[in-house]
Amino acid sequence: MKHLSITILTSFFLMSCTQKENTFDIIDFTFEGTFTEIYSIRLTQSDTVYIHQRWIGGHYNNSLFTPKEKTNYYGVLNKQERLKLFGYINKVNLFNYQPEYIEDYLDGSSYVISITKDSKNKIIFVHSHEAPKEIDSIATLINNVKHNLKLYETKKQIEFSASGLVSPIPPPPPPIKNINK
To answer: Three-state DSSP class for 69?
Structure first.
């Protein structure tokens, strides 16, 4: 009986050591491409993702499905997509990065990642070609997942925490010179 107890405790200990802790409960990702599209996607620890397609540009090309603007959708990740995406996100741990990566240019893509774990929340804004490759890789993975999902329209309303933050803040206007002097 003593050996059985030790075996069970050892097995339990080994299983708990090999389980990776999830580094997020919710990720809201909003992408804005100058000529392509604007959308938000929510990832949780389930296989279901929610998407709000805000805008689609004239050059949108997705052979699977062209979503309608201002419409909510859901899609189901297959096991392989989920493991690849969530595994990489957990490996990177977005809480370790700066809150913004910004370059001074007007066009181009930008995206916001809002990550929540327990009661902690972090927002990362990217409008730069110099963002860490780990963050850009997550954005690319999420974008690829979004474009490969079979989407189903839903009436469910979802508030995306990153949806209003994607456009870069314009610089202040130049000072006005006093012409009366």
So the answer is: coil
The tens digit of pLDDT for each residue in 161-181 reads: 765 555 544 455 567 676 665
Instruction: Please answer whether residues 152 and 75 qualify as being in contact, where contact means their C-beta atoms are separated by less than 8 angstroms.
Output: yes
Q: Are 114 and 123 in contact (CB under 8 A)?
A: yes
User: Cβ(1)–Cβ(133) under 8 Å?
Assistant: no
Q: Count other C-beta atoms under 10 Å from residue 23's C-beta.
A: 17
Stated length of the chain: 181
- Residue 12 phi, psi dihedral angles, 5° rounding: -60, -45
CA atoms 75, 80, 85, 87: torsion sign: positive
pTM of the model: 0.77
